[in-house]
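Dear support,

I submitted the protein below through the web form. The confirmation email said the job was done, but the results page showed an empty box. After a refresh the structure appeared. I'm attaching both so you can tell me whether what I see now is the final result or a partial one.
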Amino acid sequence: MTLGSNMVIQSEGYSSLIEYLCENIAVFSPTESEGHQPMTIRLYVRYQMVEQMSLLFEQNKGLIPQEKIYIVEEFDKALDDLYEVLGQNIHNKITESQRAFITDFAGLLKNLFDAQLEPV
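What the results page shows now:
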């Protein structure tokens, strides 16, 4: 498996994913916490990104170190973009609807990488 030459973060698919986030930003409006969730939005976003990256590596054992570094860098850029879009809301305790959205978003990001991986 090798990665295509295009960067995921600069792809049309990624732009669409950020549009999807912006269209659903109301999910992250400050609300009363649902229960006593100890986790913040920021922590859960990071957790999901690491989970999806780990899954990608597990599914593509043939990746060379340079490709893994590329993937980590791209996930880091996506993480920075998420933090920027979510702004101060990232410090709020997470709700179940936010948890579901972030899980979905991280899976869609992984799908962009899956689409870029090509058999050698």
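Response: this is the final, complete result; the empty box was a page-load delay. Residues 39-120 form one domain.
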